[in-house]
Specification:
Keywords: DNA-binding, Transcription, Transcription regulation. InterPro entries: AraC_XylS_family_regulators, ExsA-like_N, Homeodomain-like_sf, HTH-like, HTH_AraC. By secondary structure, the protein is of the alpha+beta class. Helix content is 42%, strand content 17%. It has two domains: 149 residues, Jelly Rolls (Sandwich), CATH 2.60.120; 103 residues, Arc Repressor Mutant, subunit A, CATH 1.10.10. Strand 10 and strand 11 form a beta hairpin. The longest helix is centred in the last third of the chain and has 18 residues.
């Protein structure tokens, strides 16, 4: 059976990773099970036979669910170096890619399904065997561009992120656990310009604002939504439950577990 398949051992995100930055374009195809992708704005569900492109220079995470005890997916990187080599050889026509989605749906087709099945013959221990690596990626790219020519505008745009609305971006993406330098890059700013603009907008340093924003959301989710601390700390950008609990108590004077217990007791009275 085909399990997780990756080119050069690269994956979108391992489990629910503390690193939420999508560093290259990735193709994901679900063979069995369910994969839900979240980009800070919307959730996108992929079931058996469905696939998408996870877009470079975006923030996102995914969650996996087995069906009938099974989960199989294919994830292949379409990195910048590979895409530049492909473009130099094929000189593909490029038009502006209009979609703003982080996870771009890929059209279902028999050709794509046949391609996925063909990977089983060159699959070995979690990777495509070295002699076939670029050949199979090129085959995939040719299929994608034949089915959806507009994807050329996505794959062959080698520019860096343009300057965008910082306040809107941070309010949407504060739960993602990435560095200040990464936030600066994604908003089209140098680190010094990012810090300057951030203080002008929020009247606070980025690090302090991020922690406070995440803790305030945690308090709301526990106190008003009845959620468990262990179920939310990763989604709010904390790497460990102990770090989350320490920061929460420092800010609010009680641990998240104590707040959760207090909320449960109040509900029972």
């Amino acid at each position: 059976m085909m399990k997780v398949t990756g080119i050069n051992s690269t994956y979108l995100i391992e489990e629910i990773s503390p690193q939420h930055f999508i560093d290259e374009h990735y193709f994901m195809y679900v063979v069995k099970g369910v994969v839900v992708l979240y980009d800070g704005n919307q959730y996108q569900e992929l079931r058996s036979g469905q696939s998408c492109i996870a877009r470079k220079n975006r923030l996102g995470r995914y969650y996996k669910t087995k069906e009938d005890g099974e989960l199989e997916k294919v994830i292949l990187s379409l990195d910048t170096s590979f895409l530049k080599q492909f473009y130099d050889r094929h000189k593909t026509t490029v038009t502006k890619f209009e979609s703003t989605e982080t996870c771009i749906p890929v059209n279902k087709s028999e050709l794509l399904d046949d391609y996925i099945r063909s990977l089983q013959r060159v699959y070995n221990r979690g990777q495509i065997r070295a002699p076939f690596s670029n050949v199979k990626r090129e085959e995939l790219l040719l299929i994608l561009l034949e089915q959806q020519p507009e994807l050329a505008g996505l794959f062959f745009d080698f520019g860096i992120p343009a300057k965008i609305n910082l306040e809107e971006f941070m309010v949407r993406n504060y739960p993602f656990n990435v560095s200040i330098e990464r936030f600066a890059f994604l908003t089209g700013r140098s680190i010094s310009a990012f810090k300057r603009d951030f203080r002008q907008i929020f009247n606070e340093t980025p690090s302090r604002w991020l922690v406070l924003k995440r803790l305030q959301e945690a308090y709301f989710l526990i106190d008003q939504k009845g959620m468990k601390p262990s179920d939310i700390y990763l989604d709010l950008g904390f790497e460990t439950l102990s770090h989350f609990s320490f920061a929460f108590k420092k800010q609010f004077g009680l641990t998240p577990t104590a707040l959760s217990g207090k909320k449960t007791k109040t509900s029972m009275e």
